[in-house]
UniProtKB/TrEMBL annotation:
Keywords (A to Z) from UniProt: DNA-binding, Transcription, Transcription regulation
Name of the protein: LuxR C-terminal-related transcriptional regulator
CDD domains: LuxR_C_like
Domain HTH luxR-type: 29-94
Length: 112
């Protein structure tokens, strides 16, 4: 309960406690939808675009070792071991957007 709780909320909390219910703060119940930092998410997006660590490092103005460090952290947060696993989990969690069904528009742009 916060200091800003209303009288009715406090009374309800007391009643619920007396009934044996456990009060858990809402912020502990809320699971973040995106556990990644903005930098980790950008690196994940670039991995999904098939960029190599060296390319990512150059474009984001960081060392290749820093990219690898972000990838290690990202893999731990996503519960995966590989780049492929990270990308798959990223799509599964909606961090990378929907999976496109083929890229016919790219093929249509190229004609002889």
């Amino acid at each position: 309960m916060s200091k800003q709780s209303t009288y009715a909320q406090i009374i309800n909390a007391i009643k619920q406690s007396m009934l044996g219910h456990v009060l858990v703060p809402e912020k502990l119940l809320a699971k973040p939808l995106d556990p990644l930092t903005p930098t980790e998410r950008e690196i994940l997006r670039r991995i999904a675009s098939e960029q190599k660590n060296k390319e990512i490092a150059k474009e984001l103005a960081m060392s290749q070792r820093t990219v690898e460090s972000h990838m290690t952290s990202m893999n731990q947060k996503l519960g995966v071991k590989t780049r492929i696993g990270a990308v798959a989990k990223g799509y599964e969690m909606g961090l990378l957007g929907p999976v496109s069904e083929g890229r016919s528009s790219d093929r249509d742009d190229f004609r002889m």
